[in-house]
Amino acid sequence: MPELPEVETARRLATRAAVGRRITEVWCAPDPIIYEGVSAARVRAALLGRRVRAVRRHGKHFWLELDRPPALLMHFGMTGGLHVPQRPPLRLRSTRGWAPPGWPPRFAKLMLTLDDGGQLALADARRLGRVRLRDDPRREPPLVDLGFDALHELPTTARFHALLRERTAPMKGLLLDQTFAAGVGNWIADEVLYQARVSPHRPARTLTALESSRLRSRLRAVLATAVRVGADGDRFPRGWLFHHRWDRDPLARTARGERIRWETIAGRTAAWVPAVQR
DNA sequence: CTCAGTGTTCAGTG
DNA sequence: TCACTGAACACTGA
Fold first, then answer.
1. Which residues contact A19 (CB under 8 A, 6 or more apart)?
2. Over the range A17-42, which residues count as b (16 or more CB within 10 Å of their CB) and which as e?
3. What pLDDT shows up at residue A138?
4. Helix (H) or strand (E) run with residue A229 in it
5. Average pLDDT, chain A
6. From the CA of A249, how many Å to the C1' of B4?
7. Is the pTM of this model over 0.90?
8. Which residue ranges have CB below 7 A from strand B?
9. Which residues of A are catalytic, by number?
10. A93, pLDDT greater than 80
11. Nearest nucleotide by C1' from A205 CA?
12. Are A110 and A131 spatial neighbours (Cβ–Cβ below 8 Å)?
């Protein structure tokens, strides 16, 4: 489920596997949809022999910064993800004949092999993900049009409220707008609005300073917790709407017994609790 | 067989 | 021109 937390988890995974390593092999699926504005041959040429300097993220985009431009910019779309092969068990004296289970991953679109034998694969069943090359990712589309990174660039309370006052869209729509806050996806928007007790229908400019401040702090808290869950394998806290929103059961209730309602807002399914969200 | 889905983009609207 | 909405995209899995 690639929202900001999954992309941040992928960034950390790629950092551990690839930073400082040289790319020795590049495999590209014959899939012109995934490679936007660039041929597989060009991707190979740009990556082969390069050393990975850093792995960065903004919103739901992340990129490998190499020892020479361009950078490899990736987006997971709805169903994409980053995979690394399972390591052989320590008790194995020799890895001869041992192959990582489930490798290469189903729907692999791009696979990199590194000079220490490690591998990274981008897989995407639905093909809405994208692979791009960018000389200066932050200063070119699509990143240049994004708003603040919802995890690391949250504006001050005053500034956040001022930004809301400029917008008329319903809060659910605004939170999903990547030119406002980069990284918020459908379930996180619902979770944040539920915890902040703000209705997804509320026009952004009508939020009071108190509501805006509550929304801002819940945005930070939900993202930070979701990243920690991804990294440490923790569970999402009891009481989160998250646990109930998937089955769309009309009788579903939160841990506190509140009735959950589903409706389409700004083109996406919103799950919310009219009893507590105003 | 049908339908919804964790995201983005683009045409259309007011 | 701008902010916003909804359809389209492409495919899997329930």
1. A52, A53, A54, A55
2. bbeebbbeebebbeeeebbeeeebee
3. 95
4. helix A209-232
5. 93
6. 14
7. yes
8. A 1-3, 6, 59-61, 75-79, 126, 128, 142, 176, 178, 185-187, 248, 267-269
9. 2-3, 60
10. no
11. C3
12. yes
